[in-house]
Amino acid sequence: MGGGVDRLRFGEGVQTELLRGFKSERKLSEHALAELFGVSRRTLRDWLNATYLLPAGVFTKICELNPAFAKYNAFIECLLPQGWGKRKGGVNRVKKFVDLQAHYAFLRTQKDLSRQLRSSSIKRLQNDRNSLLDQLVSEGIDLYAVLATCLLTDGSLVRIGKSLNRISFSTNDEILRSFMYALLSRLSLFLPSVHFTKKRNYLVRVTDEGLAAKLLRLSPAYVTSPGKIDSIKDYLSRPQPTVSFLSNADEATKKWCARFAFTTDGCISVSKSGKPELAFACYHPYLPREWQNVFASLDIRSNVSQTKNSWCGYSGTRTRDLASIEKFAEMGGFIPGVKISGKSKRFKGMEKNALLQKVVNGQGRI
Prior knowledge:
Mean pLDDT: 86
Strand content: 15-25%
Largest sheet: 4 strands, antiparallel
Shape: elongated
Strand order of the largest sheet: 4-5-7-6
Helix content: 40-55%
Structural class: alpha+beta
Oligomer: single chain
Radius of gyration: 23 Å
Low-confidence stretches: 118-127
Number of helices: 15
């Protein structure tokens, strides 16, 4: 949101007064305010100090969240084209690139993706509708349980600083990105931001202490493996993630959570000899057994998988029981439209449910 847009020049000191007033009114830390605007803390500080001129879109967003701040329209001196108020530099960094044209092409791709997001979901803010979320709401599904499930598979809830918790979800699938953006928009007081990882995945995240507190009541932790500076002993000495909250969930919620779990961290595969397998990846000493129990309560019988390549010796669950695979298909299978990732050389790009139906229909070798 910080670059590539028109910028506003306010009267002297007005920009700082505007941002500090909004920060105070919303009772936000700098971290939380930067998250709300989808920028780094450094960029936010440059706006606060008026080193950067404020993008017009940020001012519009402030007025949407609190119309009282529209009074600052009277202090706008002029609208300046993109690039004004930005720090100059980058020359030394550019010299390091061997293939400069390839680097510029990558930057153009990132800008195109950002522009698409702004023109679709981000620009619509909380008014963005999502048919999958609408379906869950109409069925009375526990949305907090669904969010917790997604965070325990392809997401995270981690503490930043001394008192803030950041909720994040990473995916390369547009359907899951759109759903998670809509889900966080519904459950959080703040607007989620969308970033891109180094692997060019979507990263949807929000910092919201109220929402984090509700999620931590479901599971005391969401970190499923030791960090870079953690020993296994230190990691296991802390509260561990759990899906035990699903034991108290109604059956409809439990089914949807299982479907999301298999969609985000699971797969359907068929060997060259024609044997199908429904697998769920989970590298943790306790969680695979908990997931096995959740799946069993839905008549999906599976075994806990062990491997020497895991930090804990476990890699998740798997089943080749055709009746269990058929049961998963009866529940609705994977989230509709989600495709098989590039990890599968044979089925990359095929919809997960399409392959699931081939298995259920008994088409043998695929």
